[in-house]
Prior knowledge:
Elements: E1 2-6, E2 9-13, H1 18-34, E3 51-55, E4 59-63, E5 66-70, H2 84-94, E6 102-108, E7 114-117, E8 129-135, E9 138-142, E10 152-156, E11 161-164, E12 173-178, E13 191-197
Antiparallel strand pairs: 1-2, 2-11, 3-6, 4-5, 6-13, 7-12, 8-11, 8-13, 9-10, 9-12
Succinic acid binds near residues 114, 138, 140 and 156.
Amino acid sequence: MALLRVRGFEIRKSYLDGSRQRALVDCLRPVLKAAPLFSPEVPRGGKMSVRMTSAGQFGWFSDAKGYRYAERHPRGTNWPAIPAEVLEIWHDVTGLERAPDCCLLNYYGEGARMGLHQDKDEADFSFPVVSISLGDDGMFRIGGETRGGKTESIWLNSGDVVVMGGAARLTYHGVDRIRFQSSRLLPKGGRINLTLRVVT
Ligand code: SIN
Ligand code: MN
């Protein structure tokens, strides 16, 4: 396990070993069953290439009206609870007592990507965002506090955990591409990224 710092992001390489990665995938199955993946619309029109769902009191959501948190899945049901195994990672890497109230699950299939953005739909930026990567490798791009300017890229591999907090909480970031089927963790390939956030 190595700790890298890139532009204020704390990147814990191989934080989860293979058996913890498999345990995490197992605890996400009932979440995906209760709250199936959907393809959010973006305000500008069109759909995101990443499919997503959430666990916790709030789920992140996007449609023609904008980006926001919602208390229900588009199907109208409450989001399932955040699994204990996921919460444990949050408490360990942040040292916080307060639990996150959203776990966004992004699924990147072949060709999916996520453009550079800031996570800024939350009420209090003093809480970090914690990201957990599972499955295929993803090329993670880190910019600055404003759009434009130089960026740095780093491959995130299965089991890596990133803490985006402190002065870097509003740093632009995105995923350029994945190496489809570079990992055998997920039976159909692809990459899962979980982000844990305090919303209210
Ligand atoms: C995100 O910024 O919401 C996802 C980041 C990632 O997939 O690594
Ligand atoms: Mn983000």
